[in-house]
Amino acid sequence: MKHLDVCLTPDLLHLHKLDNSIVVVADIFRATSCMVTGLAYGVKSITPVASVEECKLLQDRGFIAAAERDAHKVEGFDLDNSPFSYMNERLIGSEIAMTTTNGTLSIAKARASAVKVMVGAFLNLGALANHLRSEQYDVLVLCAGWKGRPNLEDTLFAGALAEELKDQFMLREDGTLMAQRLYNQSKENLLSAVSNSSHVRRLQRLGIQKDIAYCLQKDLYDVVPVLRGTTLVAMN
Q1: How far apart are the C-alpha atoms of 100 and 120, rounded to whole Å?
Q2: pLDDT for 56
Q3: Which of 72, 75, 85 is nearest to 34 (CA)?
Q4: What pLDDT, on the 0 to 100 scale, is given for residue 118?
Q5: Domain limits for position 9
Q6: How many structural domains are present in the chain?
Q7: Quick check: is 236 in a domain?
Q8: Given this model, what pLDDT does residue 16 score?
Q9: What pLDDT was estimated at residue 207?
Q10: Residues of the chain with pLDDT under 70
Q11: Maximum Cα–Cα distance for the chain, whole Å?
């Protein structure tokens, strides 16, 4: 039987064997929610990069560039890290370069060893689960966390995906069981469950509560982003 495991922070990724695994990267507040939203609204591709410098180089080559550090937009770039910024009609058909504090770094870390890298959010939970059921590989959910530390919202998403796939995948590691149980305790009101979390407090100080509520909505889109080479595109 296939296995589903959860890595609670990229700093623990070295403890997991990836050579037979699809890695699903989750950065719920807000990178992977932006990626799902952008592709759902007609963005052609998103190229995630680990550093601001790499993002600037792509911007100089004509990409629309999104750069975020510590939940703030980096000066000189086109987009911030709010999913609402990706709903603009001018972005339809565009190629976007993106760097964020945690999410794009997690993708970069997973890319070297994983069979495939995909992007998950509550926004595409059902579509992602449906696709993973059809795959022959194990799954590792990589929670982006915050600067090497676990966070609540990504762990809740990992638990939600584990709950969706529990009949098709073996859930064997304690981190996976912890995430699943946490989600089941919280699923009736995710917004309340994260209300005192560190990243929610961080975002609330910026006055963007609407982003928090939006990113916790389930199954708004059937888009499944997948990394092709170095670029995320919507899986056909």
Answers
A1: 16
A2: 97
A3: 85
A4: 98
A5: 2-230
A6: 1
A7: no
A8: 95
A9: 67
A10: 206-207
A11: 49
> CATH number, domain at 109?
3.90.1560.10
- DSSP, res 74: P
On whether the CB atoms of residues 41 and 158 are closer than 8 A, the answer is no
3-state secondary structure of 133: helix
Residue 91 belongs to a domain:
yes
Cβ atoms of 34 and 150 closer than 8 Å: no
d(CA 21, CA 218): 25
Instruction: Give Cα 135 to chain centroid, integer Å.
Output: 19
Helix axes 103-111, 31-40, angle to 10 degrees: 80
- Which tokens go with 223? 């888009």
Token pair of 56 as six digits: 């600037």
- State the DSSP code for 148: T
Instruction: Please report, for residues 16, 145, 148, 179, the alpha-carbon distance to residue 11 in angstroms, rounded to integers and kept in the order given.
Output: 11, 9, 5, 17
* Per-residue pLDDT tens over the stretch 122-175: 999 999 999 999 999 999 999 999 989 999 999 999 999 999 999 999 998 999
